[in-house]
């Protein structure tokens, strides 16, 4: 799972906050697949790989955030270039770890 996926604070009580919240699970699996130009099975494979963990509606249906859709779109790019899904998921995880390490490094340097 992408480490920063769940670290974002929950949206405020106002309904408008949901539109601005990158983590809000606004998209159904069908809508997400349509937006990405992929299949629902592709999204399930990302869930099974542990890269994206969608929230579930009261009825148990997967719901995706914009943040998760951007991750899925990046995986799709890699797959379209010939990378296997499991390898693409690993690449995305490593890219995220590198980004986080760089962020922490910059933060530590700013406190010196």
Automatic annotation (TrEMBL):
Protein name: MerR family transcriptional regulator
Top-level taxon: Bacteria
This protein's record includes keyword DNA-binding: yes
UniProt-listed InterPro entries: DNA-bd_dom_put_sf (IPR009061), MerR-type_HTH_dom (IPR000551), MerR_fam (IPR047057)
A matching Pfam family: MerR_1
Source organism: Amycolatopsis carbonis
Domain HTH merR-type: residue ranges: 26-94
GO MF annotations in UniProt: DNA binding; DNA-binding transcription factor activity
Keyword vocabulary terms for this entry: DNA-binding
Region annotated Disordered, chain positions: 1-25
Stored PANTHER family: HTH MERR-TYPE DOMAIN-CONTAINING PROTEIN, REDOX-CYCLING DRUG-SENSING TRANSCRIPTIONAL ACTIVATOR SOXR
Coiled-coil residue spans: none
């Amino acid at each position: 799972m992408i480490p920063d996926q769940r670290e974002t604070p929950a949206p405020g009580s106002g309904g408008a906050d949901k539109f601005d919240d990158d983590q809000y699970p606004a998209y159904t699996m069908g809508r997400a697949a349509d937006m990405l130009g992929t299949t629902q099975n592709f999204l399930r494979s990302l869930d099974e790989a542990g890269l994206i963990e969608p929230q579930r509606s009261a009825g148990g249906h997967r719901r995706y955030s914009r943040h998760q859709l951007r991750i899925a779109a990046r995986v799709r790019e890699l797959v379209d270039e010939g990378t296997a899904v499991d390898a693409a998921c690993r690449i995305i995880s490593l890219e995220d770890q590198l980004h986080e390490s760089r962020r922490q490094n910059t933060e530590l340097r700013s406190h010196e």
